[in-house]
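Final report, Chapter 2: Outcomes

The project's central promise was a pipeline that accepts a single protein chain and returns its three-dimensional structure in a standardized token representation, suitable for archiving and comparison. That pipeline is now operational. To close this chapter, we reproduce one record exactly as it appears in the project archive, with the input sequence first and the structure output second.
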Amino acid sequence: MPLNLLKQLIAIPSVSREEQQAADFLERYIESEGYTASRKGNNVWTIGPAFDTARPTLLLNSHIDTVKPVAGWTRDPFCPTTAGDRLYGLGSNDAGASLVTLLHTFFYLAQRPQAYNLIFAASAEEEVSGENGMRSLIGELPKIDFAIVGEPTSMQLAVAEKGLMVIDCQVRGKAGHAARNEGDNALYKALPCIEWFRTYEFARRSELLGAVKMSVTMIHAGTQHNVVPDLCTFTVDIRSNELYSNEALLAEIRQHAGCEVTPRSTRLNSTQTPLQHPLVQRARTLGIPLFGSPTLSDQSLMPFPSAKIGPGDSSRSHTADEYIRPEELEQALDLYKQLLDGLQF
């Protein structure tokens, strides 16, 4: 059952890039249920029976990795502990609950006639957007027509998701002695640029995701107290909406920011689910709320339509004493079945 499986996975540390033991366990578990498990690195997947290339293919995906435990844990993060109506453990909420309920949804759907092919995939390195996670897995899978991505959304359907771009900025000045009126202080020169990032508003605002958000999160200048700094560097975290590609944002930033700008990556774009898709329409019929998600997931790496939905609450993710309620697993399994069983797309 999903709850027992979740407890077993919590007990196996699977911090990003260290998921091998959890992947080994999940691979054995899938095969013990009578399905063939495939593997690339620490990514594990299985394809439902009677795969037919003439039919569309649905991917059920969640990630196997966790963040590192933060310092505030009052329990052993790798020991599943039940207290009251909560199951505590690292990864219980993000995204173990989604992983185990989607896997058992796969087992259920695979035994019933469906108009689509079915694949379940547990991906690695999601928490670090790693090269050896979904990015490498996609090339191993058959053509996908739609994906359900399991993340803690309180079983609401995220039909849009903010993207991410991190940029490093440089402002150059001229070194001099701090005791004399000389040099050109790069830190002072950077202040108007930083203020621009704080106040600039991109014109297009999304109904689902709101405005593009830019936050200066790191700054560095100077080598010692008596030297006027000749270089100031700072880092900006940018959360894009579906109305802009990261490349388009980058071009606008370079036009106006007044500093040297270097992106670490532009590949984690915002995503939007086609609202006319049959899955979205069925969600509406079932009364499942639709929303735009501010948090990033493996959706950003998927070159096909997808939607994000899973048990748990995003506010519990990456926190001390992370937990899930067992009843949330039961509710998720039931709702996944209602959403997907007999779906035509």
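Archive annotation: The two ends are 29 Å apart (CA to CA).
This record, like all others produced under the grant, will remain available to the consortium after the project formally closes.
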